[in-house]
Amino acid sequence: MAGAALDIRLEAAGQELTADQREKVVDNFKLLDRDKDGKLTSQEVGILFRAFGQNPTDEELAEMLRVVPPVGLDVEGFINFFVANYKNPTSEETLLKAFQVFDLEDTGIMNAEKFKEMLTSLGEPMPGGEVDAILKEAEVDDKGLFDYKSLARRLCEGPKRIPEMQ
Predict the structure, then answer these.
(1) What gap in Å lies between CA 136 and CA 133, rounded to an integer?
(2) Cα–Cα dist 134/90, whole Å
(3) Three state DSSP letters for 101-131
(4) Distance of CA 102 to CAs 31, 114, 133, 139, Å?
(5) Could you give the count of Cα atoms lying within 13 Å of 149 in the half-sphere of its Cβ?
(6) What distance in Å separates the CA atoms of residue 21 and residue 78, rounded to the nearest whole number?
(7) Whose CA, among 28, 49, 155, 165, lies 20 to 30 Å from 142?
(8) Confidence band of 69 (pLDDT split at 50, 70, 90)
């Protein structure tokens, strides 16, 4: 179901959907509503949220989905959930520019340990767990190196699974 054709772009969180966007939500909502009760489970809400181009981490999505009631969300509830949690996606180009700042030799390759050290200590430090989650998406070789262009592409595609709900 994922792909650019399903992406829904807003100027900012909270913005109302256009008529075409609402129609896209309704059509895809019906496809996911397997039991035809007019509601999506929290897992289905997460699937549809990502299908429309949102790429939260598994942890972020699990936190967002905590507000979904046990009975699930109807179409209007999903639309409210989507617009409230919407974030403009980071482009692959923006990520590449950020990586290139640290690639002084312009090789397209980065050392995983140095990458982690930079992200956990420079500027506004990221928690180590978040850096580890990013590095899980990288294909780190036996020398501890990874191709950051490939990582940027994977990060923009977003996680491929829905976290288990507790």
Answers:
(1) 5
(2) 14
(3) HHCCCCCCEEEHHHHHHHHHHCCCCCCHHHH
(4) 44, 10, 20, 18
(5) 4
(6) 13
(7) 155
(8) very high
**pLDDT averaged over every residue in the chain:** 87
Q: Using CA atoms, how far apart are residues 148 and 57, in angstroms rounded to an integer?
A: 18
pTM value? 0.62
Q: Taken in order 47, 88, 70, 19, is the CA torsion positive or negative? A: negative
Give the separation between CA 102 and CA 50, rounded to whole angstroms: 30
Structural contact between residues 29 and 48, judged by C-beta atoms closer than 8 angstroms? yes
Contact 91, 152 (CB under 8 A): no
Handedness of CA 123, 125, 131, 134 (dihedral sign): negative
User: Bridge partners of 146?
Assistant: 110
